[in-house]
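Trying the structure run again after the queue cleared.
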Amino acid sequence: MLARFRSADSGGRLGDRDRRVRGPEHLQLGRVLHRDGALDHRWSDRNRRRRRPGDRPRTDPSARVHGVRHVPLDRVQPLPVLRARRRSSPPLITVERPSFNPGLGTRPACPRICSASSVRRASRTALGAFLPASVVILPVRGLDEGFDENVRAILAQAYPSYRLLVVPDDLEDPAAIRIREIAAEFPRIRVDLVASEPDALRGKVNALRSALAHLSADDAVVVFADSDIRPARDWLRQLVQPLADSSVGVATGFRWYVPPRPTFWSLVRAEWNGVSANVLFDPRRSFAWGGSCAVRRDRLPTLRLGERWRGVLSDDLVLTQSVREAGLQIAYVPTALVATFEGATRLMCLEWCERQITMATLYLPVVRRYAVAAFAVFIGSIVFGALSLALAVPWGPLYLVPAILFLAPLPSAIVKASLRRRALFSAAPEIAAAWSVPGWRSAVAALAVPWVMAWGLVRTRHPETVRWRGRVYDVRDAHRVRLVASGERRANEGGPPSGR
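Done. Tokens:
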């Protein structure tokens, strides 16, 4: 038995001074701060060793020995522990409920610039393990540039369970025939071909709406893809990860144009397309891109895509409206960036840019208002800078100061384009390796983007027709689009390209 001996002469404990035993003032409630932040409130030994009925006596009168009280284990009471309030760890995906009104727009917000930190924040779910059975819907019409390599890349995904649903307008379409031949190289992947429903408005949106009727019970995630993208092997895995969050309505990727021959107009289209990446990091103005996006199968009744995709020309912007109105989020996945290996002439570039602005004007006017404000400031600053520079010649160098200030957006645009490109490429090393364009050529193309954008904004104030893949559509009513007849089409061929 552990024992402490008392001296009969002094009445004190032997060796107390040597052992530096503290006196009764120590017998108070104390707090001990642990490494994990918990506050442990403890009583001193004396208070914990109070005598209770049934305990053995602490003192042997004959030996004047004070023994340590032994308490049965079943009577030991835990010490009171108070946990300090700790900061909760940040959620995996930051959720922000934006207010959206297609008619009134949203309240102003500071635009987020595409930077390396923005890409890292948006890539936090890249290593997740949410891998449900998926179906990739691929509408096709004709053979695009690099079509075979694009289809092989979609069929070679490092994903455990998915199938490819190809939707042409006609089963005898050259693209459908070519996919049958390529599918033989990938026996593990199930490939289904279904023709789109006969409709007065043929096109991509009708093909997607028709494909929704051919989903199977095993398809937990529906992925929409374009035939001109060439994704990396982990594209599908990365794209579906944000859907593990129930507040996410759609997960979207984006594309980067990689021209095989980097001509001036092909680089202008690539830089113009890259400007849209800034909007993707802003939760108030982000949108789903239809060439690479995914939704959960159980969200389709809420989004009502089969109904909303009837009589419209844009699939992704209508999907964006549906997600916003359902109170769900749009999750941008930088690691799902895909490449489009395609060049462009001047006519192709201008028609493509006009088509994009027309779609935003018809179905997402808040994006158009954002573009008008941003590029009006840029172009206005350049105009004032040029005037100040011209006035410096007759009136002295004093006007060089405002000229330098007003012309500062020019080098700033080049720097931002370079930073945006590097940030996006940091999440897609395959695209970075394929991009072999000198910096000065990209800089010249970036300086041309604001002027092409301004030209497109002026041209699409009141769009009436859109030309897309050889077809002309009447878009005076955005939700009752109709295909222009051959006679009307010939009448439109004499004028310049309008809209998309």
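Residues 3-82 form one domain. Worth checking whether this holds up in the mutant runs.
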